[in-house]
Write a structure and sequence with these properties.
The complex is a heterodimer of chains A (about 210) and B (about 160).
Chain A (H helix, E strand, L loop, with lengths): L2 H11 L9 H8 L6 H21 L5 H7 L3 H28 L6 H39 L1 H12 L5 H49 L1
Helix pairs in contact in A: 3-5, 3-6, 5-6, 6-7, 6-8
Chain B lengths: L5 H22 L3 H18 L9 H16 L11 H9 L6 H15 L3 H11 L4 H8 L3 H19 L2
The chains are: A mainly alpha (about 210), B mainly alpha (about 160).
């Protein structure tokens, strides 16, 4: 007999009777918690939205005075409004993509939709990192050209600075190093989280996409 | 779930659970992972039952949800394996009338299937379940020609397992 026909015959008679659950046992399963990838993607996505917005509230209040001294408070306010609108847009996109995921789609479509949701979060994270990086660079440029504002802010918080010129140099180098390190760490963190979560899905998607063309 | 009879769903699931067990045995290598995937498929079936409008057969819908859960939604297996998936197949094999040559060949074939990629396993599963290439291509979102070409390659590969 053709080995595949033999396999087919055996497969059809395969019965997992000893693993069967009765309807009461099956009913108990239905109400257990699901731990699927989409759910995790949603949880991590919401956590990210919350994290980046919480960060804005954690900024020291008197930093606003520095903006005022630099005469950039209106620009910052306008930026804040735009940023909030962008956040709302991202949240809407994220929810829309999430809702579109249906387990009844064909496999390729389902994977595409899951990865689209992931992409929305990825773009949001890149947007946030870019905004933070650009914001920090812009404020530092203003501070660099108006160092008295920075010195008076720091002296108010940490006492008299003896050698302001040397201190300013160290301050800007430290800002640069910490900024780059933070970005690298965050990048690594995301790669790790989504790498682990979506490794299998990405592999399957690539393979299926090849077969779809 | 409002308006949906859970008991009715459970009855149909109970009657058709062999299909879910088959998918789980293909995609997992140990008892704990198998139970995990079985539960996840049941949850997904129940969650999407409200959208099942009877346009397709209940089992066709089950194939789709079960395979999609194994391919896309379920995370990787647990790290600590108690036994391999092939052991599970062999346990089942030994329950059937015994022909040493046939049993040995089936053992080799199941082992080879277990080592295939997730997508190839899905193709083999649907082939073994007698689905035609049109149904396979619709279910997986791939072209019918590619499904056929790929399946022929897998068949060849499986045949070489018996005649290296």
């Amino acid at each position: 007999m053709n080995p595949l026909e033999m396999l087919k015959k055996d497969w059809k008679t395969k019965n997992y009777g000893q693993d069967y659950l009765n309807s009461t046992q099956l009913g108990m399963l239905l109400h257990k918690r699901s731990s699927n990838i989409v759910k995790w993607l949603f949880i991590i996505g919401i956590a990210e939205f919350a994290f980046w917005n919480l960060l804005r509230f954690l900024m020291p209040e008197d930093y606003w005075n520095v903006y005022e001294s630099l005469h950039i408070q209106n620009a910052i306010l306008a930026f804040d409004i735009i940023n909030t609108l962008v956040l709302i847009f991202f949240l809407w996109m994220f929810y829309k993509n999430y809702r579109a995921i249906s387990v009844f789609d064909n496999s390729l479509m389902l994977m595409k939709k899951i990865l689209k949701t992931r992409r929305t979060i990825k773009i949001y994270v890149i947007y946030n990192l870019s905004v933070i990086a650009l914001g920090v660079i812009a404020v530092n440029i203003f501070l660099y050209f108006d160092q008295t504002v920075l010195i008076s802010y720091l002296e108010k918080n940490s006492g008299k600075i003896n050698d302001p010129e040397k201190f300013i140099k160290i301050y800007f180098i430290a800002q640069l190093v910490i900024g780059v390190l933070m970005l690298l760490l965050l990048g690594l963190f995301y790669r790790l989280i989504y790498g682990i979560l979506l490794k299998k899905l990405n592999q399957n998607y690539r393979e299926l996409k090849k077969l779809a063309s | 779930m409002k308006g949906i009879d859970e008991q009715e769903f459970l009855k149909i699931l109970e009657a058709n659970q062999n299909l879910v067990h088959k998918v789980c045995s293909l995609y997992t290598s140990d008892q704990a992972s198998r139970q995990d995937l079985f539960q996840e498929i049941c949850v997904q079936l129940w969650k999407s039952y409200s959208n099942f409008r009877g346009e397709s057969k209940f089992t066709t819908w089950m194939y789709r949800v079960a395979l999609n859960t194994a391919l896309s939604l379920h995370r990787k297996e647990k790290k600590f394996k108690q036994n391999t998936g092939i052991d599970f197949f062999i346990e089942k094999l030994e329950a059937t009338p015994y022909d040493p040559t046939e049993a040995e060949q089936l053992k080799l074939l199941y082992k080879a299937i277990h080592e295939l990629s997730d997508i190839d396993k899905a193709l083999v599963f649907l082939y073994l379940e007698d689905k035609n290439y049109k149904e396979i291509s619709e279910m997986m979102g791939i072209s019918e020609v590619n499904a056929r070409v790929k399946m022929n390659r897998i068949k060849k590969k499986l045949k070489t397992v018996l005649n290296p």
